[in-house]
Write a structure and sequence with these properties.
Length: about 160
């Protein structure tokens, strides 16, 4: 069987025209709405450092959240398959982006810090191996060109 293709149609609609469009750099909002069929919209903007609304999600946060969620989904699935019962999962993920003098920039690292609670005793080595496998399988981590480190804690 060959590779399967999956498609993810998303609409991003700019809602930040305050009346004069982009006639001036400071004269428009960076606000937008992210939408996909059958799902609630996500209120987005740019990072406040780039004149964005701090009450809205920015692309940088969404990228870090995507990496975190992808790892979690793989880890939980692998645990279920291995007979490891996870009772709680929380990740304090953080991305680091660098910005050059000309305004261009890129992520240089994302660190995932999953904190996992398990039912019953567990083999720390086996849990670490499940995190390693989840990281190796994560679609999003496999797609980025910067390091994604996983520093798990089991409680």
């Amino acid at each position: 069987m060959g590779d399967r293709l999956h498609h993810y149609p998303v609409r991003v609609v700019w809602t930040g025209n305050t009346g004069a469009g982009t006639a001036g750099y400071r004269g428009y909002a960076r606000d937008h709405v992210i939408a996909a069929a059958g799902k609630p919209p996500i209120a987005g903007s740019s990072d406040p450092a780039f004149r964005g609304d701090p009450a809205r999600w920015n692309p940088e946060e969404l990228l870090v959240a995507s990496l975190s969620a992808c790892h979690k989904l793989w880890f939980l699935g692998l645990c279920a398959g291995a007979g490891v019962v996870v009772t709680a999962y929380e990740d304090a993920a953080e991305g680091v982006m660098t910005e050059q003098a000309d305004g261009a920039g890129q992520f240089v690292e994302v660190v995932l810090r999953p904190r996992v609670a398990l039912a019953g005793a567990s083999d720390a080595g086996a849990i670490a191996a499940l995190h390693e496998r989840a990281h190796a399988m994560c679609f999003i981590a496999r797609s980025v060109n910067f390091p994604v480190r996983v520093l798990p804690v089991t409680c």
